């Protein structure tokens, strides 16, 4: 399998487009609310506008905090990130949605790319259950070599990954190109490979699980499955 090598400038531009897409809606709602405040004298409408501004500002802030950790530098090279902070930004992202979060990951300092991987897997999991449901995050460091194993499961009605997602995670999109709509799962695969981890997708009835395992461990699992 040939892994697509994306130009660094293209990667930066596509990620910026993704972040802008995530925040433009709540920011636009804030602008609309301010326009209502300028034109309306009716107390009820002004109260509605203030509530719209408040909720939209909270949504924009939550999305930016999440993107900062999931896509940003978040410290110098080789830095560690508190997984408790990761849990906080994921809960903030899903606060006003129909998606519930079950976080079964012990709080610890972990390499930043592994934390970024958890966050990006949560985004992909949320996309698998557009009608809402539960996202379950688990981490395990009990392996003999002390390596981290990550599991993110999406449970909900008709849970399903988009058909192009597995190829993007593997770095081999079907048409050998990536646009702003596809950059997030492609980036997730980049982060996994930078962490020397491989991704394994399991789909069951109303459930999708993505596991991130040390590359050698996954190779062993796949070999055993074939046997």
CATH class of the domain at 8-13 and 79-226: Alpha Beta
Biggest β-sheet, characterized? 5 strands, mixed
What is the typical, i.e. mean, pLDDT? 88
**Strands in their spatial order, largest beta sheet:** 2-4-5-7-6
Under the CATH scheme, the architecture of the domain at 8-13 and 79-226 is 2-Layer Sandwich
Low-confidence stretches: 218-227
Say which CATH homologous superfamily of the domain at 8-13 and 79-226 is assigned: Histidine kinase-like ATPase, C-terminal domain
Q: Categorize the overall geometry.
A: globular
Terminal Cα separation, in Å? 21 Å
List the main descriptive attributes of the protein structure presented here.
227 residues; alpha+beta; Heat Shock Protein 90; five-stranded mixed sheet; two-stranded antiparallel ribbon; globular; disordered C terminus
